[in-house]
Specification:
two-stranded parallel ribbon, 15 helices, 362 residues, five-stranded parallel sheet, single chain, alpha/beta, 44% helix, Rossmann fold
């Protein structure tokens, strides 16, 4: 069913001129002045047509897992890194590789191991005897899509090298810094079951991921289709390249223009603040379970992820449902639990769900 345009926003759009509206590419939070929603909707519908092409190509390889696919697209369009967590065999690596196959971009895969060195990731200085000087040999991090497979197996030195790439979009080799290509996206996987030989990701690095997506098992019907596809004589089709990097960069800029009403902004702020001071929202019993709440980076991430979700649904404005749909993936890795919560086997997802149930929806 097609969603109806919000009456209040449309009414405001007819009476307020759009000249002079600041549509900065640096802040995901929209101006309080509403743009022309009808015109913006048309632009979004036209610009987001490639999303259906991407979904179609990914469906050739990935059966089901619509939520995972959409969140990979949100990370791609929202210019944010994505961490996929799930037991082996749930197509985490396959989904990331398939996404890179559908986009005309450079892809590299890095298998993280305990003996990995920063130079294996970012590159190193090599001495050229003929020219009698050092030259830079760039590592696999210089790609548009970087698959960090089993990221929690790398030691602290490698994690710190990756942190600069994720946050600053550059790497430092020797005394020189090098910009990474655009778009640049780290898509990481980790196995929550096996803990031997793993290093828990530092909180600072986990916070750099826009989304942490937990992958579940497929349904019986989906698993039957997976068996049929893998055992057929034709085999699994490879995705075709249907989108260019220029299309992605243009879509990222357009997503920043999607209208975010002031009431939705306040709703986002309330959700994040409820993780810090739950007592202010009638959830005082959660104070003993939450060690630390989400940072302002969570508010920014929730805003841009909500806009990207609206873009996937071909809308020029954000609804509360956009925020609620993506909130769990934005917040689950940014809320720290106390020993009491861990002793009672209470997860961050349970706390965030309770917060979303209590915070008033605009």
């Amino acid at each position: 069913m097609e969603e109806k345009e919000p009456v209040s926003v449309a009414t405001e759009a007819r009476s307020i001129p759009t000249e002079g509206i600041d549509q900065s590419d640096t802040a995901p939070v929209a101006s309080s002045v509403a743009p022309d929603i009808r015109a913006l909707n048309e632009r979004i519908k036209k610009a987001s047509q490639f999303v259906d092409l991407l979904r179609l190509e990914l469906s050739k390889v990935i059966v089901g897992q619509r939520g995972m696919v959409d969140r990979l697209l949100i990370g791609l369009l929202g210019n944010g890194h994505v961490l996929l967590e799930g037991v082996p065999g749930l197509a985490k690596t396959l989904a990331i590789k398939s996404l890179s196959d559908a986009v005309e971009a450079h892809f590299s895969r890095i298998q993280f191991t305990p003996d990995l060195l920063p130079a294996d990731l970012i590159g190193t200085m090599i001495y050229n005897q003929k020219e009698e000087k050092f030259s830079v040999k760039k590592g696999p991090i210089f790609a548009n899509f970087v698959l960090a497979d089993e990221i929690n197996r790398a030691p602290a030195k490698v994690q710190s090298a990756l942190l600069e790439a994720m946050q600053e979009r550059q790497v430092t080799i020797g005394t020189e810094s090098f910009k990474l290509p655009e778009p640049f996206l780290v898509l990481a996987t980790q196995n929550p079951v096996e803990q031997e030989g793993t290093y828990p990701l530092p909180e600072a690095q986990v916070d750099r991921f826009l989304l942490k997506v937990v992958i579940g098992y497929p349904t019986k019907d989906e698993e039957q289709k997976i068996i049929r596809a893998n055992l057929s004589t034709e085999g699994i089709q490879s995705p075709q390249k249907v989108v260019s990097t220029d299309d992605i960069i243009l879509a990222r800029k357009l997503i920043r223009e999607i209208y975010l009403d002031e009431k939705i902004e306040r709703y986002i702020v309330d959700l994040v603040h409820a993780t810090r001071t739950p007592a202010d929202y009638g959830l005082g019993h959660l104070s003993q379970l939450i060690n630390f709440g989400a940072s302002p980076r969570a508010s920014i991430g929730l805003g841009i992820a909500s806009k990207a979700h609206a873009f996937l649904n071909q809308r020029g404005y954000v609804t509360p449902e956009d925020v609620r749909t993506i909130a769990l993936d934005v917040l689950r890795h940014r809320v720290g639990l106390t020993f009491e919560a861990e002793a009672e086997n209470i997860s961050a997802e349970q706390l965030i769900t309770e917060i979303m149930d209590h915070v008033q929806v605009p």
